[in-house]
Design brief:
Blueprint lengths: L23 H10 L1 H10 L4 E2 H7 L5 H13 L3 E6 L5 E6 L1 H19 L1 H14 L4
Antiparallel strand pairs: 1-3, 2-3
Helix pairs in contact: 1-2, 2-5
């Protein structure tokens, strides 16, 4: 099976270009970097979780949004869903090898941002002060 190439790709050596409108990598980037996707991937880096454990870890996410997020990440090959044949059914979610790589890079960014929040908050105060609170 041949690897699909983005139809709008610029003169890049890579077959996929997230900046190209029709490139499927753009959708995966959205799944991973969206609000709930990034938090879910980051939480799963700590280890496998059941749905409700994950929901408690990712504060503020609704059951519906977490379910949609997990489905999208599973479809992209970032999360693995394993249903245990028990009564009641037990479902565990964990990162795939690709998901672990993605999570490590994402967590590096998260930790960088967390470590620089004093500078971010100062910049916000300065911006808000010069804009009259807009």
């Amino acid at each position: 099976m041949e690897t699909p190439v983005c139809t709008d790709a610029c003169e890049s050596e890579q077959p996929f270009d997230v900046f190209a409108r029709a490139c499927p990598s753009r959708e995966t980037l959205e799944h991973v970097t969206g609000r709930w996707g990034s938090l879910t991937v980051g939480a799963l880096r700590e280890g496998p979780c059941r749905f409700n454990e994950l929901r408690r870890r990712v504060e503020g996410v609704s059951e519906k949004m977490l379910s949609q997020t997990l489905h999208a990440l599973e479809r992209d090959g970032i999360v693995n869903r394993e249903a245990q044949p028990t009564n009641p059914p037990r479902v565990d979610y964990e990162l795939t090898p690709l998901g672990i790589e993605v999570a490590d890079r994402l967590l590096a960014l998260i930790h960088h941002l967390e470590g620089n929040m004093p500078a971010v908050l100062t910049a916000r105060e300065t911006y808000d002060g010069t804009r009259g609170g807009r």
